Amino acid sequence: MVQKGPRPLVFFGPSGSGKSTLLKRLLKEYPDKFGFSVSHTTRNPRPGEKDGVHYHFTVKEDMIAAVERGEFIETATFSGNMYGTSKRAVEDVRRSGKTCILDIDIEGVKQIRRTDLDPLLVFIMPPSIEELERRLRARNTEEEDALKKRLEVATKEIEYGQEPGNCHITIVNENLDKAYAELKNFVSQNLKDNEPEPNASQE
């Protein structure tokens, strides 16, 4: 299959690792180069979240039907809610000539690696599980059971992210500026290959 645009940039890592902060910073600094793929979810919006901006909010029946029609690249279920990346969300970004950024979990990573999108996989991890727990507790957004579940999932995610061949780069987010500099360096080295030659035929 002919590539229709730059390779997607996939971020994954435990909740609280700081991946959202890093990708937002990248999008803010390079708005013309990157576009964010807006995921679908069946969970309710949190305060301040807007439909079509933070997520496409939908209901489970509709999302299951769309998955059965083959409209999704990857899907996952967490805490009883479905999450997923639709083919259209990625295509919309790629059609604009931008590099599509995705923020997905490890199940999504496994699924997207089986597609022909040939993504660049960036694993963001916390300095330690203890630090991750401290960050999640500081958010004060979840009950104790949900927090414990997140930490269990995080342990598995860290194991997966550290296995050779599962990502192109691992960034330990202990210091945000240092982690961002590492990310920028990786992106500039790897996305140069996506730029079309100046005299390349556009046909």
UniProtKB/TrEMBL annotation:
Specify the domain of life of the species encoding this protein: Eukaryota
Gene3D superfamilies with a match to the protein in the record: P-loop containing nucleotide triphosphate hydrolases (3.40.50.300)
Keyword Lipid biosynthesis assigned: no
Q: Where is the Guanylate kinase-like domain?
A: 6-188
Q: Write one Pfam family the protein is assigned to.
A: Guanylate_kin
Q: One GO molecular function term? A: GMP kinase activity
Which PROSITE patterns does the record match to this protein? GUANYLATE_KINASE_1 (PS00856), GUANYLATE_KINASE_2 (PS50052)
EC number(s) recorded for this UniProt protein:
2.7.4.8
Alphabetical keyword list: ATP-binding, Coiled coil, Kinase, Nucleotide-binding, Transferase
User: Coiled coil where?
Assistant: 129-157
A single Gene Ontology CC term: cytosol
Listed InterPro entries: GK/Ca_channel_bsu, Guanylate_kin-like_dom, Guanylate_kinase, Guanylate_kinase_CS, P-loop_NTPase
Which protein family is named in the record? Belongs to the guanylate kinase family.
User: What's the protein name?
Assistant: guanylate kinase
Organism annotation: Euphydryas editha
